[in-house]
Amino acid sequence: MSVAFRRESDDEHMEPKFELPIPPGPNWVTARGYRLTREKVEALEAVDLSALEEGPAKKLRRELRYWRTRLATAEVRPVPSGDAVAFGTRVTYELNGRKNSVAITGDDEADPNEGRISFTSPLARAMMEAEPGEKIDFAGRIGAIEILAIEAVDEA
């Protein structure tokens, strides 16, 4: 048999496993986001790695490295005044004739299904520093978003 058709193990041809990507920029978090990150690290540290097979253990260690890094670099932002759109505010706005409300949070805390978007998202960046009643451009449309209300979110 030719050497070209032999391999020592199945692992030789597997894709390499890379670290979980860290979002660029500052790691701003709300008090809630910091608490959730700390709880995630504690939960991962509590897992008995000796009870896991090699693959799942490697995956867990990789995830733990990610969350430890995020905890170490977390910058808890102060609760804003709520006068203008900022990190840590809940914004009620109208876009395309539909009213919606989102909280602007850190990257790891963001969950659009729960009404939480990252401060780095295009929508959040477009709304930053806007005040109630102001219309802002978005997605190439002039005055596409109208800011209806802003409130500071304090979920400590």
Report the β-strand fraction as a percent range: 15-25%
Q: Any idea what the CATH architecture of one domain is?
A: Roll
The average pLDDT value, as a whole number, equals 88
Beta-strand segment tally = 7
The succession of helices and strands, N to C, reads EHHEEEEHEE
Distance between the termini: 66 Å
In the sheet with the most strands, the strands line up as 5-4-3-7-6
Rg of Cα set? 22 Å
* Low-pLDDT windows of residues: none
* Structural class by helix and strand composition: alpha/beta
Q: Would you give the CATH topology of one domain?
A: Chitinase A, domain 3
Tell me the name of the CATH class of one domain: Alpha Beta
Largest sheet: 5 strands, mixed
In DSSP terms, counting alpha (H) and pi (I) runs of 4 or more, how many helices?
3
What is the element layout, followed by pairings?
Layout (H helix, E strand, L loop, with lengths): L27 E2 L1 H15 L8 H20 L1 E2 L12 E7 L2 E8 L10 E3 L3 H6 L7 E4 L2 E12 L4
Parallel strand pairs: 1-2, 4-5
Antiparallel strand pairs: 3-4, 3-7, 6-7
Summarize the structure.
The chain is 26% helix and 24% strand.
Overall description:
By secondary structure, this protein is an alpha/beta fold. The protein has a domain at 89-152: Transcription elongation factor, GreA/GreB, C-terminal domain (Chitinase A, domain 3, Roll). It is 26% helix and 24% strand. The protein has three helices and seven strands, in the order βααββββαββ. The chain has helices at residues 31-45, 54-73, 122-127; strands at 28-29, 75-76, 89-95, 98-105, 116-118, 135-138, 141-152. The strands form two sheets. The chain has a five-stranded mixed sheet. It has a two-stranded parallel ribbon with strand order 1-2. β3 and β4 (98-105) form a beta hairpin. α1 (31-45) packs antiparallel against α2. The longest helix is centred in the middle third of the chain and has 20 residues, at 54-73. The relative contact order is 0.16. The mean pLDDT is 88.
